[in-house]
């Protein structure tokens, strides 16, 4: 008999605490390097016209400078929504309504989006920070290719909710998962 999946809020806290510990360890830099090359290879295959990236929060994979036109997310609290704004690659001077660094460029819809994952399942579902911003964006743009970026240690079991959409691919420092 399998045990029930933990409450999503509890699981999120546990995964974020584990990520903080991991980010403070010597293994973190090696994992960052191990994920970078496969990401670049994958993007070379996908050939995005406009790549949606994210400004990394502590412990997240930092996609760094990539040789593509890029856009950063901009989240609004009321109504809760997210779009992407073209980004020139310079350190962002603006913050969105959630306090995350963002770009001030024109609103655009990327054809490939890198999605940070607090947790993930083998079936391609993502546990994020709980605001539903990426879920809303992806529901409004079903043709976008989504690549979840996660640390292998953040694989988890959680109950999938009605609004959850599977990612196209998930890439960790150890493997590419194609649900």
Fill in the keyword field for this structure.
single chain, 179 residues, alpha/beta, eight-stranded mixed β-sheet, two-stranded antiparallel sheet, 3 helices, 12 strands, globular
Measured as a percent range, the helix fraction is: 10-25%
Question: How many whole angstroms does the radius of gyration measure?
Answer: 16 Å
Name the structural class.
Answer: alpha/beta
Low-confidence segments, ≥5 residues, pLDDT <50? Answer: none
Mean pLDDT metric: 94
- Element pattern in H and E: HHEEEEEEEEEHEEE
- E-strand count: 12
Describe this entry's structure for a reader.
It contains 3 helices and 12 strands. The two termini are 24 Å apart. It has helices at residues 8-23, 27-46, 133-140; strands at residues 51-52, 70-76, 81-87, 94-95, 101-102, 107-108, 112-116, 119-120, 126-127, 145-149, 169-171, 176-177. By secondary structure, it is an alpha/beta fold. The model has no long low-confidence stretch (mean pLDDT 94). A hairpin with a 5-residue loop joins β8 (119-120) and β9 (126-127). The chain has an 8-stranded mixed beta sheet with strand order 6-3-2-1-7-10-11-12, with helices on both faces. The radius of gyration is 16 Å and the shape is globular.
């Amino acid at each position: 008999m399998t045990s029930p999946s933990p409450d999503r809020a509890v699981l999120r806290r546990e995964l974020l605490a584990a990520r903080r510990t991991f980010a403070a360890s010597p293994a973190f830099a090696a994992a960052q390097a191990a994920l970078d090359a496969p990401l670049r290879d994958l993007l070379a295959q996908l050939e995005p016209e406009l790549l949606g990236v994210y400004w990394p929060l502590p412990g997240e994979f930092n996609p760094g400078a990539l040789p593509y036109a890029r856009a950063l997310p901009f989240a609004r609290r009321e109504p809760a929504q997210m779009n992407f704004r073209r980004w020139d690659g310079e350190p962002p001077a603006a913050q969105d309504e959630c306090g995350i660094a963002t770009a001030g460029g024109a609103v655009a819809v990327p054809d490939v989006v890198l999605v940070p994952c607090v947790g993930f399942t083998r079936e391609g579902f993502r546990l994020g920070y709980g605001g539903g911003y990426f879920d809303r964006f992806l529901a409004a743009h079903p043709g976008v290719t989504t690549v979840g970026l996660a640390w292998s240690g953040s694989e988890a079991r959680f109950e999938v909710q009605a609004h959850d959409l599977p990612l196209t691919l998930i890439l960790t420092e150890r493997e590419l998962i194609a649900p």
